[in-house]
Amino acid sequence: MSRPPVPADIPPDLYGRDRPDRLMRFLDRAARALVPVLARSAGAVPPPRPAPAPRRFLVSAREEAADDVVALTLTAADGSPLRRWQPGAHVDLCLPSGRVRQYSLCGDPADTGAYRIAVRRVRGGGGGSTEVHEDLAPGTPVGVRGPRNAFPFVAEGPVLLVAGGIGITPLLPMAREAARRGLDWHLVHTGRTRSSMPFSNRLADRFPDRVEILPDDEGGVRGAVRLLRGAAPGGAVYCCGPAPMLDALREAFESCPAAALHTERFTAPPIRDGRPFTLRLRRSGTTLAVPADRSALDVLRAHDPATPYSCRQGFCGVCTVRVTDGTIDHRDRRPGERTPGAMRVCVSRAPEGACLELDL
Amino acid sequence: MSHDTHDDLVLHPRDVRFDWGRLPMHWVPGRPTATHVINVLHLLLPEGERWFVRTFQEALPLVRDEELKEAVLGFTGQEAMHAEAHQGVLDHLLAAGLDPAPYIRQVEFVFRRVLGERPQPTAARAREHVVERVAVIAAVEHFTAFLGDWVLNAEALDRAGADPTMLDLLRWHGAEEVEHRSVAFDLLRHLDPGYARRLRTFLIGGPVLVHLWIRGVRFLMAADPALPPGAGPTWRAYREAAREGLLPGLGRMARFAVRYLRPGYHPSQDGSTAQAVAYLAASPAARAADH
Predict the structure, then answer these.
(1) Range of the domain at A307
(2) Sorting pLDDT into bands at 50, 70 and 90, what band is A267?
(3) Cβ A253–B287 below 8 Å, yes or no?
């Protein structure tokens, strides 16, 4: 975030008396006197710790959970107990190739011996799911960071869980938790075909009155209004599935009697129509190339891990950097709040081949 | 208030927008004191929270823990959105005939100069100056976590017919304060595990904040075109509003404040993340932000 100018003078009195404000003058003097003293009283500076490596895990079991879906059981390489987690949590899976992918935990949170994840093979994707499907045999070492939770479950009823395809994974522990707590819960699972939809058959066997399986090839594609039919007045709805399904559910939710809609957060949207350009850092003279498929922020972070950012969607503005030369291709969501002569590096770019000089 | 277990939450800002076109001057109807005590937030927060963001960004290179760094980044985005949202109310107050400029000039002075970056002779001192200001933020966050929890539960405001858009702003903000209530404290402990700095920043910062707040209420009531000249806040009016649940009780606030000084204190011991998460899933502004 860019720095505003520092006021040079003590501001005037609040009520228009013609003198500098006394409290402000006092605070200014106090700070001037105290800061050098307090900055001197340094405690021991803790030694820098190296960035922690992901924890080492092994694939201890693998099964086909549905067409093109493989379920993996992961245990710590040293056999030690795992960090506890809450329904909705995910882990970063660090693959042997160096790719890192996030997967929801679909096992039992009370099981501190193993994590379970399920991965659908995405053809033509970034290759992460293909690597999981083709290379992760039992015994393969992988890295794991987390678990972390971007989809927290508030165990208060009534609850409707709506899953699209592989989106069932974070909802499974929620269903179990709801059952354990005796909540009024229901789960609706849609997908292309029954054989492509993992896990819900087993859940339906246990809870035939609570689980509804709705494959497209058995009765057609269900609309969002149909999926939300079981939402109870004042209740909560949790959704996980493909983006178009979530958009439709958000829209239909406004006319449904439930009170709260929970969806998982995905931060960085894909870069559309990106062209390569370069960044020049004014203070160090460094030049960095930004490829078409990466953001300026990605490149700056690789250069300096302490680069600030937050939303990665161009609205919060904390990644704003002053631009001292070059043409900015602004792509942020709040044009009215743009700082003149600055860019939000998480989304904004430059024309193809152009160079932007940043005040860094 | 209960201890809860959502301690691995991924923090992220929400792209909220509010429309103040129909906000009445006294948005708690007929209660200027309650309205303006809460309105001080709009005076202090835009500058204050931008200062939080700048200070945490100064602290980022000192953080040696990836998860904490992620939490700090999520925190800064949330604070930046809070600042913009409260700025919107400020702009509306001006349009409605209440000019906040004299107070705002002072708030800018406090956060840009008194508490701003100051050149230090050595790198070690520069680091200490950053940590000192992180400690101030941790103390303020103790207070905002209290207010967040309070406003999420302040049903009296609904009963009093308070403006629903303002309530949504306060509760969205309050819920995010509850969500991220441990971040500043964890950052402080990471940079300085000692007790002395926690104590002194609380003892200096607490009274200054309370004093700025009282000045703010006095200023707003004097500048409010809908009030007769000479109108001002009284402790009696505050206590009456607090008794009805329209403002937090002074005794409760004082008891909560000193909890910060217990050696074994951690922010996760107070407030409910589950309640915050539930509100954010129901908040009209937060829900619209996802579209």
Answers:
(1) 277-358
(2) low
(3) yes
CATH number of residue A294's parent domain = 3.10.20.30
Q: Residue B277 falls within a domain, yes or no? A: no
Residues B53-94 have pLDDT tens digits of 999 999 999 998 888 999 999 999 999 999 999 999 999 999
Interface contact A317-B282, CB threshold 8 A: no
Q: Which helix (H) or strand (E) holds B40?
A: helix B32-59
Half-sphere exposure of B150 (CA within 13 A, CB side): 17
- Local confidence band at A53 (pLDDT 50, 70, 90 cut-offs): confident
DSSP state of A100: E
Nearest one of A284, A287, A279 to A323, comparing CA atoms: A279
How far apart (Å, rounded) are the C-alpha atoms in residues B51 and B179? 20
Instruction: Name the domain count of chain B.
Output: 1
Q: Which amino acid is residue A80, in one-letter code?
A: S
B219 touches chain A (CB under 8 A): yes
- Is A355's pLDDT higher than 60? yes
| Amino acid of residue B139 | A
User: By C-alpha distance, which of B118, B135, B153 is closest to B199?
Assistant: B135
Give the pLDDT confidence of A151-200 residue by residue, as tens digits. Answer: 999 988 899 999 999 999 999 999 999 999 999 999 999 999 999 999 99
3-state secondary structure of A36: helix
Given A115, A149, A183, the domain boundary residue is A149
Q: How far apart are CA A174 and CA A159, in angstroms?
A: 10
CB atoms within 10 A of CB A114: 16
Averaged pLDDT for residues A117-141 = 91
* In contact, A315 and A291? CB cutoff 8 Å: no
The one-letter amino acid at A150: A
- Max CA distance (Å), chain A: 80
Please say which residue of A107, A129, A149 terminates a domain.
A149
Q: Is A5 on the interface with B (CB under 8 A)?
A: yes
To the nearest 10°, report the CA torsion of B185, B187, B193, B194: -60
Tokens of B271: 């407030």
The mean pLDDT of B19-38, rounded to a whole number, is 96
To which residue do tokens 């178009």 refer?
A244
Contacts of A245 (CB under 8 A, 6+ apart): A164, A167, A190, A224, A239
Using an 8 Å Cβ cutoff, are A165 and A191 in contact? Answer: yes
- Residue type present at position B151: V
Domain carrying residue B59: 32-142+180-260
Q: Closest partner residue to A236 among B80, B81, B281, by Cβ?
A: B281
CATH at residue A177: 3.40.50.80
Are B6 and B181 contacting, i.e. CB atoms less than 8 angstroms apart? no
Residue numbers of A between 292 and 351 with CB closer than 8 Å to B = 306, 308-311, 313, 315-318, 333, 337
pTM (two decimals): 0.93
Exposed/middle/buried for residue B59 (C-beta within 10 Å: 0-12, 13-18, 19+):
buried
What's the DSSP call for residue A221? P
Q: What is the length of chain B?
A: 291
| A245 and A330 co-located in one domain | no
Confidence band, pLDDT 50/70/90 cuts, at residue A42: low
User: Is residue B288 one of the residues assigned to a domain?
Assistant: no
The secondary structure element, H or E, covering residue A342 is strand A342-344
Question: What ipTM does the predicted assembly reach?
Answer: 0.91
* A85 close contact with B: CB closer than 8 A: yes
* Token pair of A271 as six digits: 């870069």
Beta-carbon contacts of residue B66 (< 8 Å; ≥ 6 apart): A51, A52, A145
